[in-house]
Amino acid sequence: MAFADLKNDFVFRRIFATHPDILRGLLNDLLERTDDRVIEVIEYLPSEQLPLVIGAKLSILDVRCKDRAGTTFVVEMQLIHVPGFINRVVYNACKAYVSQLASAEKYTKLTDVVAISICDFELWPDAEQDEQQLEHIPMLSRWSMTESKSGNHGLLQVQYAFLELPKLRNLPQSKPDAGASYWAWLFVHAPELTEMPTDLPEGPYRDALELANKATFSQQELDAYQKVKDEIEQVRELAEAKLAEGEAVGFIRGHMSGKAEGKAEGKAEAIVAILAARGISLNEGSRARITGCSDVATLDRWLVLAVSSSSVEDVLNSS
After folding, report:
1. 8 A C-beta contact, residue 24 and residue 37
2. For the chain, which ranges sit under pLDDT 50?
3. Which of 33, 61, 104, 270 could form a disulfide with 252 if both were Cys (CB 3.0 to 4.6 A apart)?
4. What is the pLDDT of residue 56?
């Protein structure tokens, strides 16, 4: 028995974007909702993202939903710490808040937004906190506006939660029993499992892992999973290289020439990889325009612009 990586974009959506009970369990654990505050019912909201089989963008809004009280939850899996990540999280949460209101509607119709980011990296490393003589930020941290003197939590309209998966190693027990820590354990260790853990309780944890069982995947789903996995590894190579912007084009050209012999296909894949590594998401039309382009000169121009432009529009609409 082999299990897919729950952090993989395809698998994450397979589990959490189509099974509300599993997503509800994840939300209750990450937001520590219990008793009368537990989330009982959620409704999926329209997604702005590409179909599941397209591939990984590595910086994405994965799942959006709303509970009976009207609170909107925006859940994302982030694999690489790209520049401006925190800014983007805040921007998307605020965008989700203001987009609720149509023209001339009353502000009282606005409901809370909670942005949840599951990160495969440390946002606030313990070493950096020690250098600044600050308290360590726990693996699961929750943030909202607080009045500086009284500590009053009066502004809760937009809230944030971050689960930093590498901090799982800081926990005293090797395998947690439940809650957010158990989700973190599954996100980190699912690909290593060769059988369903006997002590895994019925409910969201077991359901999520059963959906990650590769034996339940069709061949098309296995191909989609592998495609995303390859894209993730490709972008990790770029990120780990820590290349300056001026060096990135040459590196990627060489990297991709070995894969696609320097042809248009390889250049197009390089452009997509650069944009993904820089946290710039692609809509379906933009991705199709890049991957469908066969003009090498155009692709070379886009390749250079992809390294420094702030949006895919700046790349594709260049003269």
Report:
1. no
2. 49-61, 242-247, 249, 251-262
3. 270
4. 38
